[in-house]
Structures are given as C-alpha cells and as structure tokens.
Amino acid sequence: MSLIKIVLTEDHKIVRSGIRSLLENEVDIEIVGEACNGNELLELFESGTINPNEVLLITDINMPGINGIDMIPGLLEAYPKLKTVVLSMLSHEKYVLKAFQSGANGYMLKNVSSEELLFGIRHIFNNGQRYLCTELSIELLDRQLGRSYATTDDLPVVDLSKREKEILSLIAEGYTNQEIADKIFTSKRTVEGHRQNLIDKTQSRNSAALIRYAVLRGMVS
Amino acid sequence: MSLIKIVLTEDHKIVRSGIRSLLENEVDIEIVGEACNGNELLELFESGTINPNEVLLITDINMPGINGIDMIPGLLEAYPKLKTVVLSMLSHEKYVLKAFQSGANGYMLKNVSSEELLFGIRHIFNNGQRYLCTELSIELLDRQLGRSYATTDDLPVVDLSKREKEILSLIAEGYTNQEIADKIFTSKRTVEGHRQNLIDKTQSRNSAALIRYAVLRGMVS
DNA sequence: TACGAAACCCGTATTAATACCTGATTATTA
DNA sequence: TAATAATCAGGTATTAATACGGGTTTCGTA
Fold it and tell me: CATH no. for residue B185?
C-alpha cells in the first residue's frame, strides 16, 4: 500500500483544516497541498510544487471562480493520471452524474463519516476504482426499487381494459376529459367515467396520484 | 462503538472459515454462531443459544433448503431487530432488489475486499443504515448515467427548490392544495402558486402531466 | 449594497375534475 | 342461458384546479 498524496480544494478554511487534521492522522496519507479555489490549484500544479499525476484531488463544488466539477475535464486533459474526488453538500443527482461524466473518480457528501471518507479515498487511490458514498448509493438503490415495483407481486396490480389504458395514457399526457373525448370520438361524460374508474381501481385519490401509480408500474411511459 | 455479534450462514465450510478468520481479527467483532443452511440457523435462534435481536446475520443466497433471501422476511417477522447482510457471488440486479425488498440491510458481492466487508458491517451495525457494496453501487450509477444520456436530450431538465420538491411529492400522493397547505403550515393560495410554478417549469399542461414528468425523472417515487 | 431567487400571500374568474346517481348495449364466459 | 365486465351516455352538484393579475419578506451572493 503506497503513500496517498492528497491535494485539497475548498474555499472554507475551517472545513479545509478539519479535513486536513482528520487525514493527517493516517499513516498512509499525506496532504501535499491546499487551495481555496481553482486558480490557486492550477498555480500549485503549474509551479511544479506538486506532481498532478500522482495525487488525489479532493474538491468542493461551490467555490469562488470556476466550480469544482467544471474544472475537472480541463485538469484531466492536462494531467490524465490525476484522481479526483468531489466532496460536496449537494446531494442532487444531477451534480453526481455531472461529476462522474466530467471524469471524477468519486463523489461524497460532506456528511460522510470519517471512516467512510478514508475508505473511499483508499478505494479510489489503491484500487483505481470509482466511489460513490453510501448515502447516495442507497438513494440510487431506493429509486431503483421504486422503479421495479412494476415487476413485484407484493402490491395489488390492477388490470385495465384496452380502453382504460388508452385513456390513462392520454391523461398522463395532460389532456382534459373533453380533449380525450374528441380524440377517441366519444363523449366527455364517458371519458369522465373511465377516469373515475381508473382512480377507483388504483385506489388513488385523484388524477395526479393515479399517474404516479401508473408510471411507477410501467403502465405508461 | 459496541461489540458486533455476527452469525454466519453459508454452506461451504471453507468460505465460512475464511470469513470467520478474517472477522476474528477485529476487536469489535465476535462470531457467535455458524450455520450451513436456514434450518440450522433457526435451530440456533430457537434454542436460545443466540439472541437474534442483537446480532448481524451474514448469509449466502444459494444454500440447501430455503435460500438466503427468501428466509429474511420470516426471520424479520419473528425477530424484528435482526440485521442481515446478503453476501453472494450473484451480481444480477434482481437479487439485489429482492434482497432489499425482503428487508435485508446490506448486499455485498463475495469479491469485496476485506476492508469493504468490515466497513459495510460496521456501517450497518453501528449506524443502522443499509449498505450496498461499491461494485454494485457503481454499476447502478453507470446505469443511471446511461439513462440520463437517453432521457435528458428530448425533455427539458428543471431544477426545483426544496419547497417545490416537497410540494411535488405531496401532489404525487394525491393531496389537494388545501391538504398540502395544512400539512406544511402555509396557505392554500401559496400551495396553488407552487403547483402552478411546477407546472410552468416542467412545461406540463396540468398536474397529471406534471406527475408523469416527475416520476419518469425520479423526482418522486 | 443591490440584485435575483425563493417563499410567501391575496383577488378574481373560469374551467376541470370529482362524487354521487341513473341506465343501455355488447361481448365474454361460467 | 345467466351472469359479469366493459363500454357508452347522461344528470346534478360540489370541490379543486388553472390562469391571470398584484404584492412582500428574506436570504445568499455578486
């Protein structure tokens, strides 16, 4: 197990110090540089103080100037062996996806435990694999579980007539009863009746809940 | 950090011994029992040798008799505080999903590193959270990355405020504006405003279309 | 400090949806 | 053949949602 050299980019001094002191306790980790934004980081790299091809960069997203994710592609172009971990309080999926699309090797929320931070760092540096913190992993998993309700048989699955499915799709697309009636050449009242049946069958409270039920079960897409 | 008591269920003796010797090196972990299938495990529990409400069960899937995942719901019914980790060589998503749906607290592939096995065990036992091994997490993530390439092209991406997400979820559950207002202690008119913003932002025609949009993007589940 | 974004609030008017009810026709199937 | 389900259609009433318009306060940040 080789020595892990780390560079920190984070605009809040206190956060930086906290992470530094946490990592410094580990015998296999050394902090070789700190920067409070992307420009300072570039100076560190370009001045030759640090060899970017053998370090792990831990970076925040929100910082003055360029943000932590957006600077990754440029860094990787210049220093292909640089490894990067995004450490952020932003849990929205779009940041996670964008980080990995930009070439990050890891993404962790700022509320990870110190054990997990260390585990993730070592996982990335020693095994060369990517890492996503458990909180976000479980969030992803839960979303997948939600999606797969369609295929599980523990929840009551209703079966709909052809007409009902047709109308369900149109409701999901946002058409009103009158518009649907015009489309399928029947009366508004008939469509209203079908809509009510759909709501009753799925035990939903209204159309919004009906559509949630339907999409989660793959009845419409 | 309390002592982690572990019961192992695994039909291959050599694998069991390997895991045992690995875990026994840790000061905070104790192996209190072993079984080579579900029946033996039940005997251990029912004989009173082990208190199932304070242990972590690590189980394989494929075993003679009942499989490791299928026995979890019954175990949890009898011993609600039992924590379970599925340790299997099966990486197919359907096993992972089924394990968590059955109430497992963790799922790890048999090729995890010892560090990860320990990390996962401690994460589950000490923090009470679920754990999915990194290899599978990254696999999930990649699938999500693939999906987002496919879906973000044809449909507009919006980002919502915290409040909007909160209200969006409640709409998806079928609550009316008045009910939502009561729940989040604000006025019905405010909720109406938020609902309208959600519809506008997502370029939906009404609440039904809004919910379809939201569910398809995993904004609600 | 000036700005935008978010959250909050309100009025008015119209349209749509929901919740009950009724009954007829057709097709399937037990 | 009798029963059942699906489809269609209508009546009536109430409630909810939508679409405009107007506004304030607060907070983070440029």
Answer: 1.10.10.10
Q: Is the pLDDT of residue A158 over 90?
A: no
Q: Are residues B16 and B81 in the same domain?
A: yes
Residues B174 and B118 occupy one common structural domain? no
**Residue B46 sits in which domain range?**
4-135
Got the DSSP string for A136-165? HHHHHHHHHHHHGGGG-SSSPPP---HHHH
Question: Cβ separation of A132 and B132 shorter than 8 Å?
Answer: no
A107 and A206 together in one domain: no
The domain boundary residue, chosen from A144, A167, A189? A144
B183 touches strand C (CB under 7 A): no
Task: Indicate which CATH number applies to the domain containing B25.
Answer: 3.40.50.2300
Q: Write the pLDDT tens digit of every residue in A61-104.
A: 888 778 888 899 999 999 999 999 999 888 878 889 889 999 99
B140 to A138: CB separation less than 8 angstroms, yes or no: no
**Pair (A109, A136) in one structural domain:** yes
Question: Is residue B22 in some structural domain?
Answer: yes
Do B25 and B123 lie in one domain? The reply is yes
The answer, for B221 touching chain A at a CB cutoff of 8 Å, is yes
Burial class (CB in 10 A: 0-12, 13-18, 19+), B161: exposed
Whether residue B125 sits in one domain with residue B44: yes
Do B95 and B203 lie in a common domain? Answer: no
Q: What is the DSSP letter of A43?
A: H
SS3 per residue for chain B = CCCEEEEEECCCHHHHHHHHHHHHCCCCEEEEEEECCHHHHHHHHHCCCCCHHHEEEEECCCCCCCCCCCCHHHHHHHCCCCEEEEEECCCCHHHHHHHHHCCCCEEEECCCCHHHHHHHHHHHHHHCCCEECHHHHHHHHHHHHHHHHHHCCCCCCCCCCHHHHHHHHHHHCCCCHHHHHHHHCCCHHHHHHHHHHHHHHCCCCCHHHHHHHHHHCCCCC
pLDDT, tens digit, for every residue of B134-193? 999 998 888 887 665 544 444 455 667 778 888 888 898 888 888 888 888 888 888 888
Q: What's the number of domains chain A is made of? A: 2
Contact check, Cβ <8 Å, B212/A207 = no
CA–CA min distance B2, chain A (Å): 16
